[in-house]
Amino acid sequence: MPHPKLTNEEQASALGTQLGALISALEVSYDVRSALVEILPDLNHKQLEQLVVFLETSAMQAGTANLDMELKRKVESIKADYDSAEAKLAAEATAELEAVAAKLKMQP
Tell me, what's the pLDDT at 91? Predict the structure, then answer.
């Protein structure tokens, strides 16, 4: 969306900088990035703004997917640690109960 206090040249420069950053951040091949850069001069201002919105949305979705995977790995790690600690405690409790049972059997 154009900023009312910026000149057209300043708006174009800001939009170009934003597009450059978004395109360089894309997780696609060099050829795809190059193709995007090649079509930019053929797009009007409204189309460029729509492309910015699309690229920002794509970047956010990719970032969210990465966060989701990272969170999943952390939760799995925490669960594995919990399961291991629980198994260790259960084994210790079982050993203590067996020792108590053995002592009770030895008493007359």
Answer: 96
User: Do residues 20 and 56 make contact, with C-beta atoms less than 8 angstroms apart?
Assistant: no
Residue 16 lies in domain: 8-82
So what's the pLDDT on residue 4?
A: 64
Q: Is position 68 within any domain?
A: yes
Quick check: is 63 in a domain? yes
Q: How many domains does the chain have?
A: 1
pLDDT tens string 19-53: 988 888 888 888 988 988 899 889 888 999 899 99
